[in-house]
Automatic annotation (TrEMBL):
<feature type="domain" description="Methyltransferase type 11">
    <location>
        <begin position="49"/>
        <end position="144"/>
    </location>
</feature>
<dbReference type="GO" id="GO:0032259">
    <property type="term" value="P:methylation"/>
</dbReference>
<dbReference type="GO" id="GO:0008168">
    <property type="term" value="F:methyltransferase activity"/>
</dbReference>
<dbReference type="InterPro" id="IPR029063">
    <property type="entry name" value="SAM-dependent_MTases_sf"/>
</dbReference>
<protein>
    <submittedName>
        <fullName>Class I SAM-dependent methyltransferase</fullName>
        <ecNumber>2.1.-.-</ecNumber>
    </submittedName>
</protein>
<keyword id="KW-0808">Transferase</keyword>
<dbReference type="InterPro" id="IPR013216">
    <property type="entry name" value="Methyltransf_11"/>
</dbReference>
<keyword id="KW-0489">Methyltransferase</keyword>
<dbReference type="Pfam" id="PF08241">
    <property type="entry name" value="Methyltransf_11"/>
</dbReference>
Length: 257
């Protein structure tokens, strides 16, 4: 029941904020987007799966290089909004409402799959990885990009608490070691990876999903109340008693089935 509630919350939050994710700089202009085609080296014959597309940035980045991109999302309102933005420019993107943990596709259907800045919303990441491996062709490539929790448990708890306070549809950011274990368990062999620090502009970040000014203040109080070690790790920048920016870890990994 909790899983169903979380997925309904995801639909609610992302349905209401669909256009913000199309225009969000952190989603639309990430340094990782140009790397997708570089790492995957897609062919014009390929069928590529974009899991939990959100604002459609992965689909947009790969459509010029692949034969067909299947752009999926759990939230119908989000997918409809994304389709409106992309349909005029790209005629090789198809849009399918789909749950990342129960993909509506046959085994060995895709040459490549990508999931970017979404898995922290999935209640059961192990189902997501199992499903991705199932629908990939043997030899197919999979790129995962997401915010990751530090290996230090206290810092991981702080990061996930911050995300949950700001976005009630948040499930959990996994650590790199947790993701690596899931990849290995599903016969997905890591080929290359990239670590980067991602800076959030706090006012824009918190208001993308916060539903009230009270919620904004709760998140800020949580950040300001962090101990010195946590504030240093997340590089929480405070000016005149207000949080301006903070920094989290993001991981990009490519694996092959």
């Amino acid at each position: 029941m909790m899983e169903d509630n979380l997925k309904e919350k995801v639909k609610s939050v992302f349905g209401k904020n669909a256009d913000k994710y199309v225009t969000s700089a952190i989603h639309a202009k990430g340094d990782d987007l140009p790397l997708l085609a570089e790492w995957l080296e897609p062919q014009k014959t390929w069928v590529v799966l974009d899991i939990a597309t959100g604002g459609g940035h992965v689909s947009k980045a790969l459509a010029p290089h692949a034969g067909t991109v299947i752009s999926t999302d759990l939230t119908e309102a989000m997918l409809e909004n994304t389709a409106r933005h992309l349909k005029e420019e790209y005629d090789n993107i198809l849009y399918v409402i789909a749950d990342a943990e129960s993909l509506p596709f046959l085994p060995e259907s895709f040459d490549a799959a990508v999931c970017r800045i979404a898995p922290h919303h999935f209640p059961h990441p192990e189902k997501f990885i199992r499903e991705t491996a199932r629908v990939l062709k043997t030899g197919g490539k999979f790129i995962l990009i997401d915010n990751v929790a530090p290996e230090e448990n206290e810092w991981a708890l702080f990061m996930n608490a911050t995300e949950k306070l700001r976005d009630t549809s948040h499930a959990r950011c996994l650590s790199k070691n947790e993701w690596r274990q899931l990849l290995q368990e599903n016969n997905l062999k890591e080929i290359q990876s990239l670590d980067r620090k991602k800076t959030f502009q706090y006012p824009a970040w918190v208001r993308r999903t916060a539903e009230s000014e009270e919620q904004v203040r709760r998140v800020e109080k949580h950040l300001l109340g962090a101990d010195a070690a946590v504030q240093e790790y997340f590089q929480i920048d405070v000016e005149n008693g207000e949080v301006r920016t903070f920094v989290i870890d993001e991981w990009m990994v490519m694996a092959q089935k």
